[in-house]
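Crash report, auto-generated. Payload:
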Amino acid sequence: MKLLTHNFLSSHVKGVGPRGFPLRLQASEVRIMPVEFNPDFVARMIPKLSLGEVPTEPIQGYEQNEDFLRTMHHILLEVEVMEGTLQCPESGRVFPITRGIPNMLLSDEQTEA
Amino acid sequence: MATGGRRPEHGGPPELFYDKTEARKYLRNSRMIDIQTKMAERALELLCLPDDKPCYLLDIGCGTGLSGDYLTDEGHFWVGIDISPAMLDAALDREAQGDLLLGDMGQGIPFKPGSFDGCISISAVQWLCNANKKSDVPAKRLYCFFTSLYSVLVRGARAVLQLYPENSEQLELITTQAIKAGFTGGVVVDYPNSAKAKKFYLCLFSGPSTFLPKGLNEVKDEEVARQSTFMNKRVPYRTARSGVVRNSGAMRKSREWVLEKKERRRRQGKEVRPDTQYTGRKRKPYF
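Recovered output after restart:
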């Protein structure tokens, strides 16, 4: 699981709603997988990220700053969490990550449907 | 994919049907790979993404990552969800470039609002229509799926879901829940006259209503629209098969259509030639 995806993942446990974000990540195994750098994509994704307690306005002209984009590219797309857990901040439900794949299956009681 | 006329959804849940053996077919069977790739290509086409812009896409029922590979080839980044561990294992073996999640689409899509620029699904959504556990209510699962899908899409983004509806009731069940969730759109049918080639694409828009793309058609001399927008009326499967949605179910320019039109004009009190064996017969191109 790439960190980009983790930034968008949210808990869908019943009754949790927007309080199910962000999922607390605990990584026990991580690997670096090179990915072709695409500055357009990274620049477009940056405003959509939830970066916690940081100033809301990105630095002017970040789209042209290649070093910055390359760093973000590396963090978001090249770092893969292979083993670990994701935890819903509201319900405490834990989603395990195995071989890079988070298991998001819910039990019947936890499903909205 | 249905084998020997029997639908796989009737035999049990997808996580059991898509076991290692089935997953291997997606890795080895070139015909299967070809069909899946072509459908992914068509779905991406129907998604109408802006040219040359790499997007963040969702692949529902990504399976072994065949459709995802096509998205990668087109320069996009994607996240795939599938309920079968065996299929996802095969995707890992194939080194699929997208992020994979083990999940049940009927439980909702676990992402924050406005995450994805678009969504495709190849041959997966019909699985929601069959209840595999006593607690499953297909309509609720479909509604949960569509409302969460609507939420995770960027406003104005589309979802193109290729599926194999068993019958018109199923298609209607699906489209009803999609509309309830806030989507507009319709069903695009490619090659409606071919039993083998015919494909259904449910095209959903999360923003204001847009023009629905035309379905593909082998026949060149008939410019017949192959699209249907959501209506309150039921569309009999028989009619959906012939590809044209008309009140009476007759194909435009067919003999049936001509006879109906003449009858209509008679009812309007206009002078109409009597119907004979020559009425609506095929004419030579130079007629």
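Post-recovery validation: Chain A touches chain B through 33 residues (CB under 8 Å).
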